[in-house]
Amino acid sequence: MNLILKEVTSENWEECIELEPREDQKQFIASNLYSLAQSKFLPNFETLAVYNDEIMVGFVMFGIDPDDSQYWIYRLMIDSSHQGKGYGIETMKQVIDRIKAKPVPTDIMVAYHPENKAAASLYEKLGFKVLGKAPWGEIMTRLSNVD
């Protein structure tokens, strides 16, 4: 595996919006098209395409949430045809490393749908601790960024 995170640009955004999760996962995540549009109104967010060598396999979006000044990973999506290969956990490790390298350390937050067992398992493996249910209904988790 040679996983690389690259900026979503005018050259690759159309390929990015073609990526989709499995049918049973679509209820848990916004489309990449929606996420890219949303990012235009979140100036402190990064949108990155996930590549295995030269093949785009996923998408991730993260940044400082304007409401609480914490880093949030808003989206992680691995295309249905590339799931089960370890790309999700490796992508998250790279994103966590990028956030930890920022000049001002903050905790890292993630929220997920209560029925999304795959997300719950992934974030638990990475050390995220459940904080409880958010007002909008998702499960909120935090990874302490104090090393």
Automatic annotation (TrEMBL):
Pfam families: Acetyltransf_1
Cross-referenced SUPFAM superfamilies: Acyl-CoA N-acyltransferases (Nat) (SSF55729)
Domain N-acetyltransferase: 3-145
InterPro entries for this protein: Acyl_CoA_acyltransferase, GNAT_dom, MshD_Acetyltransferase
CDD domains: NAT_SF
Source organism, top-level taxon: Bacteria
UniProt protein name: GNAT family N-acetyltransferase
